[in-house]
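Appendix C: a fully annotated inverse folding record. The material below is reproduced so that readers can follow the format used throughout the book. The structure is listed first as tokens, followed by the designed sequence.
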């Protein structure tokens, strides 16, 4: 096969295209995608969150189809870290390669993504998937790693009062990661489907009218909207911490003086540890029952995007042509 089917984003418009199958450069692997997940960032890219043109998508599980520098890895089932590094800039030399000054980001910045039959990533980005982890779980590795990043950035203790604002695709995973710390956790969930999913995981949810003002030690915001920060700001106590996960199109106004007066710590949080995420999946420590609300062939990717954009919908998956029925 010298051409492949792909979902292409350009000028905020999605189209299905037949594009060339890429050739791996030195240190890279060609990955045959099996399943790919649609997340809120993909939807925000369509709305114009970042000026990206190319193949959309960054959550995937696949198998190595070509790796000139590592033929022993052919056929290996893998997931992949989405940030590539140059290895030469100040950030890379300081072991902050996720913030490489010259990085590409799968399906987000200067690198075609996973909503296609094949993708390219450096071999060092690809993690083998344990045999016990099925494809439909493995595709959650990237967002689960992002959830785990919070506990790397903030020490969360059992006595901490923690509020999670947002219970969507990523929010459900964050809720389970936070609950595992033993903290006093409350999750603000808007839709009944989100509440039902939280209940299946034994996690307490609240409505907006039950949110206590200025009480939470830590607030994690993952709504994907401007209003989410306002809610987080209302919930956090003076001297508390807000962790931001949302990325969205446009700007928002913030009362910076109030943050100074109340001594609020604001932390941006992005990608996280893949090894730890895969271990949690292999150990069965994450409940994914009910998370997948749609599974579409790549040829119906536009319909899949539409389904993922519906209110209250959690994960929608794209299935590649050569893997129909697998997972």
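Designed amino acids, in order:
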């Amino acid at each position: 096969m010298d051409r492949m089917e792909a979902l292409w984003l350009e000028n905020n418009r999605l189209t299905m295209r037949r594009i060339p199958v890429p050739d791996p450069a030195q240190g890279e692997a060609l990955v045959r995608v099996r399943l790919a997940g649609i997340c809120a960032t993909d939807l925000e890219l369509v709305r114009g969150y970042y000026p990206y043109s190319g193949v959309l998508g960054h959550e995937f599980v696949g198998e190595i189809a070509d790796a000139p520098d590592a033929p022993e890895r052919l056929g290996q089932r893998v997931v992949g870290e989405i940030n590539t590094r140059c290895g030469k800039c100040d950030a890379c030399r300081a072991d902050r390669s996720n913030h490489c000054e010259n990085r590409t980001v799968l399906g987000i910045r200067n690198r075609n993504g996973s909503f296609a039959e094949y993708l390219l990533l450096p071999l060092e980005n690809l993690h083998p998937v344990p045999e016990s982890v099925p494809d439909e779980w493995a595709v959650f590795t990237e967002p689960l790693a992002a959830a785990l990043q919070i506990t790397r950035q903030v020490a969360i203790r059992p006595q901490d009062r923690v509020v999670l604002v947002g219970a969507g695709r990523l929010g459900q995973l964050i809720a389970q990661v936070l609950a595992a710390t033993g903290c006093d956790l409350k999750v603000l969930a808007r839709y009944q489907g989100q509440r039902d999913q939280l209940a299946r995981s034994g996690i307490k949810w609240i409505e907006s009218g039950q949110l206590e003002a200025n009480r939470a030690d830590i607030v994690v915001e993952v709504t994907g909207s401007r209003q989410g920060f306002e809610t987080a700001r209302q919930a956090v106590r003076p001297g508390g911490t807000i962790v931001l996960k949302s990325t969205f199109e446009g700007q928002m106004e913030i009362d910076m003086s109030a943050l100074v007066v109340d001594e609020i710590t604001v932390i941006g949080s992005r990608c996280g540890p893949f090894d730890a995420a895969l271990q949690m999946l292999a150990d069965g420590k994450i409940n994914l029952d009910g998370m997948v609300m749609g599974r579409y062939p790549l040829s119906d990717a536009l319909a899949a995007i539409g389904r993922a954009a519906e209110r209250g919908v959690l994960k929608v998956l794209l299935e590649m042509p050569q893997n129909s029925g697998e997972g």
